[in-house]
Amino acid sequence: MRRATSKALEASSRINVTLPIAARLNRLPITRIHRTIVIIAGIGTFFDLFDIFLAGVLATVLTEHFHLSRVSLPAVIGSSFLGMFLGALCLGRFADWVGRRTAFLVNLGIYSLFTLLGGLSTSAAMLVVTRFVAGIGIGAEPPLVDAYLSEFLPPKHRGRFIAIAYTIGFLGVPAVGFLARVLVPVHVLGLDGWRWLFVAGSVGGGIVWFLRNQLPESPRWLESVGRLPEAEAITTQLEAEAVRFGTLSEPSSNERPAPGSASFAVLFSREYRGRTAVLWVFQIFQTVGYYGFGTLVPLVLASKGFSVVTSLTYTSVVFIGYPIGSALSWLVVERIDRRWQIVGSAFLMSVCGLALGTAAVPAAIIASGLVYTIVSNIFSNAFHIFQAEIFPTFIRATATGTAYGLSRLSSAAMPFVLLPVLQQWGAAWMFAAVATAMSIVMVDIGLFAPSTTGRPLEQVARSL
């Protein structure tokens, strides 16, 4: 007991509470608390991605079950993305008002309830409505995770540990593929197998809700809204753990966060309108390449003459590339500037998409699809880290949520654009459209985005 008390006193004597909150967070090593936060955030992202890819995986199944026409199929696929637009827009703003942790609990509660109801749908109309409302809950998840983790993690480790969280999350993509392959052909307890996929997502979201109820609030956000004693308490807890198991380095920067209040108008102010424009253009077009592949690949395979079961088998194999690509990003995320990770991977996605569009034999289809998913998740991790780094704390969740919401709106429109191209001209022309969108992304980020890798958030926000 005396030894423990002595260590605690020694730890507290080495903590300088006169430093700004940001400086104290930036100098920390990775602690047990950091790792716990990353894992819980990753598990939540698992069910976010599970849900996002669910509609695409089940597109051919739902078409047969509800006798969907070419007109109604895009509505089913696009309804959840439309809900995601509204959720990212509103709940991102909500997170800047009431906190990241509270917003996490609200978004997961909405998702879990309406995903369960979606699994009980008796008509296409009910499915569209429940997918839309569930999308409101799930749409806020990625921008909230990006904002929350970026505010907790020190600059030298920020990219790698956010990538770790997303690698956990991307396991949800092959999970939905393989689970669909097993459940779709069968009935369980009198229910169609596809309905159990919705139940799995709902139950998983409920479990994550209870885990996230234990998370601390972001100290940066608490400081930004004047709740300094709470911010101090959480930061001191992190520092005490760091001192017990290692050392605290001297702060590299004593910059304080940019002052301001959360408002959409701030995004268009002289200070931030350039970054807002870059991020908005990026999000509108990147989703064509990223989700255009992930949500439509089963239909691409069907257009090539493969059966529902065969297309689900190929899709589940190809989706293994999502966590593989995310894990591979750990090797480069702190070594190569985020801008060039985004540009380089966007180029490779274009090349692999065109290869998949023209492929005719199973080996070529699987190989090109697998490489596409691997590269696209190096791309995805880089942009998720990047988008939360370029705005100050007081507006971070609003900025990332609004931009990400535009990507969901683009995703909602995407089936109405890409599906007619696929159905009328074929997969090669569809992926040519995808390559065009990714070219716009490359120009936007390569020429106009700021450098963020390894830099404190406050320093990035001020380097306008």
Describe this structure in words.
- There is one protein chain.
- The protein is 76% helix and 1% strand.
- The chain has 464 residues and is mainly α.
- The chain has one domain (2-462): MFS general substrate transporter like domains (Growth Hormone, Chain: A), CATH 1.20.1250.
- The protein has a two-stranded antiparallel sheet with strand order 1-2.
- It is globular and about 65 Å long.
CATH topology heading: Growth Hormone, Chain: A
Which word captures the global form?
A: globular
CATH top level is Mainly Alpha
Structural class: mainly alpha
Q: Tell how many strands the DSSP assignment holds.
A: 2
Question: How would you describe the oligomerization state of the chains in this entry?
Answer: single chain
| Contiguous runs where pLDDT drops below 50 for at least 5 residues | 1-13
Strand order of the largest sheet: 1-2
CATH superfamily: MFS general substrate transporter like domains
Can you give the mean pLDDT?
83
Kindly provide the radius of gyration, computed on alpha-carbon positions and rounded to a whole number of angstroms.
22 Å
Distance between the termini: 52 Å
The major β-sheet equals: 2 strands, antiparallel
Structure annotation, total helices: 23
Strand content: under 5%
Q: What's the domain count?
A: 1
CATH architecture: Up-down Bundle
Q: What is the helix content?
A: over 70%
